[in-house]
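Worked example 4.2. Below are the chains of a multi-component assembly; read each line carefully before continuing.
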Amino acid sequence: MMRLALLALLTACGGSDPCDAITGRCIALQVESATVDRIDQLELDVLYGDRHGTATTSDGVVELPLTTAIEVQGSGSLPVGIVAAGKLAGVVLGTGAAQTTSEPGARVDVTIELAPTGDCEAGGYYCGGDKLAGDADTLYQCNGGGVPLARGRCMHGCTVRPTLDDQCEGGSAACIEGGYYCGGDKLAGDPQSRYRCTGGVGADRMICPDGCVVAPPGEDDYCR
Amino acid sequence: MRVFVVAIVVALQLPAHADPAEDAALLHLDRGIAAFNAKDFSTAEREFAAAHQLVPDKANPYRWLALSEIQLGNCKSAVGHIDGFIARVPPADTRVAEMTRWREFCRRELAQPAQSPQLTGTQALAQPSPPEDTQLRQRWWFWPVIGVAALTITGVTVYAVTRGDEATMLPPIRCDATGCR
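Applying the procedure described above to all two chains together yields the following structure tokens:
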């Protein structure tokens, strides 16, 4: 009788996998911090493949460490970038970032350490690690009072520019005069914006609210 | 706890008076009961005898003396004290039945040839039934209380141990072609 009661107690108290309820590909995210004790909102910016989304999950005031699951839809092997912001009463207490690759139907574990926020300027563009948390090869937009928003992964690296917005590099191949390109594709810029190649650089910037798609060679890139 | 309960029972047996002899007897009785519970029956017998000398008309020292003497294998003397106890309490006293059983036991012992000068009733027959006022375990509520306490302690311990390792789980996030939510 006592053994049964103890077993029931242990089962009730035992932890479970955050991916238990997810049948597809799943990222089991653990969030911890040496400086943040508790939060009431976890804001996540997820960059998966060429898509991007932001969501908040919460369950009242909770102590760290905590776990959650991210179900990602997409085909094939998918690079995933995650930036997390822990908030308490609307104030960001810490941010952190991690990268992983998600395979179809597979589960992957990711840990993010929340650290005090950087002093980025709201609305400005920054490479990860430059005044905000994130991947060094991803361009983010500083979000005052929230999680940094990923603009996109930089195929040819992200360049820090102290007095200007950081930007994705265009790589060694030159753009064709008059052609249209996403930032970071043969011309420097923002991966979620489309530019017209003018004199080898981007001009006539157009922001793509749903992202910019890099087209096959010979075709113009386009807004989704 | 037992001592406390026994002390209350004894106090009820020996009404509180300012009589120094009764106070001294009560002290001896307390010491005797403590020694008895510690299975130091010789000391217990001495203390009960001292109490008995101080208050020879009180029933309780007779009973304790008898119980100690039985433990020491001195059934002959115990029978006298059992009779003394029974003569001083009402027939309905719950301890009369206990004393009567011991008297029958001692009479059987005395009817047999002596086997050993220190043959004790407990060795020859069975464990003596400890004084009723110390039998907390026989109360109907004793084991349920122990069970509930054990479950509570186990639960709190398991919770405390697992709590430190277990992370809080937040609802999942789903990301598809239209974004994350």
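Take a moment to check your reading of the output against the notes. The interface with chain A takes residues 147, 150-151, 154-155, 158-159, 162-163, 165-177, 179-181 of chain B (CB under 8 Å). Helices of chain B lie at 2-13, 20-37, 41-54, 60-71, 75-88, 94-111, 121-124, 142-165.
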